[in-house]
Amino acid sequence: MNNSNINQPKRTLIPIFNPARPRNYFMRAAVCGNGHLFSAGLEPDNDLNSSNYVPIPKYCQSCGADFFSDCPNCNSMIPGHLYSPDRFYPPEYQLHYFCGECSKPFPWAGQEQILMNLQNVLLKEIVDPALRMELKKRFAELIAEDRDASKRKLAALIKDKAGEVFNSPPVQLAITEAIKALFRSI
Q1: 3-state secondary structure (DSSP) of residue 158
Q2: What is d(CA 88, CA 85) in angstroms, rounded to the nearest whole number?
Q3: Which of 6, 21, 80, 175 is the most buried (most CB within 10 A)?
Q4: Is 77 helix (H, G, I), strand (E, B) or coil?
């Protein structure tokens, strides 16, 4: 019997170093079209041939929307957590609203983010300082607009566009449940 391993320290497993990947890199995120996060910790090369492949559901389990892990405009990866071997726990994931490669909004970007992007695009083109200040002021007013008025406008638009479907029993039940949930959250 060989007792040479009795006083040996236990070995700990360490991640295998991949020389093709930088020491610190962004993981891949998968987010549905309405902004629900599936994961922010997928490997960047999350494909069927990868040993670390994680299947992404086709539809969000919270709302039924499609998932995205690449920009729908330029196909670049949607960044997730920043991986670093020196970090043990990733910080809370901050949802990205625009692609870092093509600057187009992701499907879950809201009105406020779209307005801020429009402001940035216009400000790049305007040279006159007075006009720039006026534009900034007007956009600030638009962004700070009463959100309740925006919600009422959206509800009226949905009702107008949905027509008779809006009055069907399943839709009325869904509306009733949504209103109840809204009042419970207040």
Answers
A1: helix
A2: 7
A3: 80
A4: strand
CB-CB neighbours of 104 under 10 Å: 13
- Start-end of H helices in 1-146: 111-125, 129-143
The domain ranges of the chain are 13-108, 111-143, 147-185
Residue 61 has pLDDT above 90, yes or no: yes
Q: What is the spatial distance between Cα 74 and Cα 104, in angstroms, rounded to a whole number?
A: 9
Q: Confidence band (pLDDT; 50, 70, 90) for 159?
A: low
Residue with tokens 């040993």: 51
Cα separation, 168 vs 159, whole angstroms: 12
CB 81 within 8 A of CB 45: no
pLDDT on residue 65: 93
d(Cα 69, Cα 56) in Å, to the nearest integer?
9
* Average pLDDT score over the chain: 75
CA dihedral 45, 48, 50, 55 (to 10 degrees): 80
**Residues 43/27, Cβ–Cβ less than 8 Å:** yes
**Cβ partners under 8 Å of residue 45, min gap 6:** none
How far apart CA 39 and CA 42 sit, in angstroms, is 7
Average pLDDT over residues 112-119: 83
Closest CA to 99 of 121, 116, 76: 76
